[in-house]
Amino acid sequence: MNNIFADIHCHPSMQPYSNAFPKKQELKTKMDLIQPDDANNNTSPWYYNPPTIEDRLLKETVGITHYSQSDFTTLKKGNVRLIFSSLYPIEKGFFKNKLGTSELSNQIKEFFCGISENKIDYVINNTDYFSDLCMEYDFLKHKSGVDITIDGTAGNYVLVKNANEIDKSVNDKNKFSIAVINTIEGMHSFGSGLNYNIPFSQNEYVDNIIKVKNWENHPLFITFAHHFYNQLCGHCESLQKIKLVVDQTLGMGNDYDLTLFGSDVIDVLLNKTNGKRILIDIKHMSRRTRYTFYKILDEKYKNENIPIVASHAAVTGDGNSNFYNADINFSGDELIKIKKSNGLFGIMLEKERLASKGALPKGVEDVIAGKKIWSKIIWEQIKYIALYLDKNGFDGAWDIQCIGSDYDGIINPINHYITHEDTHELSEQLIRHAKKFMNNEGKDMRQANRLSDNEIIDKVMFRNAYYFAINNY
Fold it and tell me: Cβ atoms within 10 A of the Cβ of 106, count?
């Protein structure tokens, strides 16, 4: 049985950082946004806010999550000891009301139900994404390495600086220590995408990237695109639930590619002369942008074998109607590119991304075999990737899959696995699916890919993410 778990994309600081915001007229310096000593305060990353029965009902009926999914206490309860924590300045595009009214729609209020009104007010009036990014980093950094007692035992989280600190934290025998690796979601974070009618300073933008590359806890990777046009590249449609009130069409789809400055920014991120390299996460990029990026790697960086990351993703199924076929998901030829680069494919736990509507379990199925049947949705992603790589002649067909849950990233997760506390149960169920597969179809795989069920799920749930971090951070 696997006992230690990892997640390459989640947002443990989003809710507590949001709750730390005072009213806008009271926010004077970033030092107003610090963590409390009390873990029972909702501004603490350790604040435990599990789903109630009412919360579970809301999630099942309308997809609203009023609870915390990846706070550090929940991570401890789920035995998740390695996370890639995503810093995210919320984009102003959410609050440019498509309905033409000055008030926030009820849909937007519910969508951001875990984010405080003070933070939303800050975002609406914000003229500088970069300061928001830096404040969230400082907030998370504040209590790094500070011991706390949770459920009668000592624990801490360590915002790590290098591979040695990752290894030390994950293997700490004296306390439950969580190794936290910085990542960022969205290149808007450095100062683009605020006002499309006013040019932003490209020099200042690059200076901001260089500052972050020289952070004590530099980001391992950055999700290059996100929900709205960042003036660097095209993005995919990602807000189907609220598209009636939020317009993300500017920059969306395959009419949009990398801009000239976007190509320059890739070089700034990947070079090692101005700080630590920041890898690029291709999730949210338009399909056209992704293929331009692959071409850049093949031509300009062909001798460096730079890993490609899809941090919270799912497959299209290449015509298989059981999968969700949209540009935001990834085709088989892209899996090969990720594999060849020694990259990572984080399987997200967002229900609507993982399977077509017709393939999602129905009410009766959920009652009869809920945990088994919903975990199979994740297993189908894991298996599809392995079989695709195996059939295309690759050993190591189980080496790129991992979990990139997107917990606390405002998602509606699959039933029964709705917070990190459920990670151990997910692992147990996946082992059962893997065992059944390897006793049947798996016997026809290449010899090097015929692993035991426990080996496969240990890779997916921990080792692939762990070794990627050790080798690249």
Answer: 9
Mean pLDDT for 71-96 is 96
Instruction: Please tell me the distance from the alpha carbon of residue 29 to that of residue 215, in angstroms, as a whole number.
Output: 20
List CB contacts of 106: < 8 A, sequence separation 6 or more: none
Distance CA 19, CA 42 (A): 7
Nearest of 188, 203, 84, 71 to residue 131 by alpha carbon: 188
Neighbours of 83 (CB within 10 A): 28
pLDDT tens per residue, range 120-145: 988 988 889 999 999 999 999 999 99
Least confident segment among 136-145, 196-205, 362-371, 441-450: 362-371
Which is nearest to 346 in space by CA: 5, 9, 4? 9
For residue 416, how many other CB atoms are within 10 A of its CB? Answer: 18
279-301 CB burial, b ≥16 within 10 A, e <16: bbbbbbbbbbbbbbbbebbeeee
Of the CA atoms within 13 Å of residue 344, those in its CB half-sphere come to 32
> Using one digit for the tens of pLDDT, what is the confidence trace for 250-279?
999 999 999 999 999 999 999 999 999 999
With CA atoms as reference, report the closest residue to 287 among 323, 226, 331, 321: 331
**156 in Cβ contact with 148 (< 8 Å):** yes
Coil/strand/helix, residue 315:
strand
Q: Mean pLDDT of all residues in the chain?
A: 93
| Token code pair at residue 257 | 């590619």
- Which residue reads 């960022």 in tokens? 184
pTM score: 0.95
Q: Which domains does the chain have, with CATH numbers?
A: 5-472 (3.20.20.140)
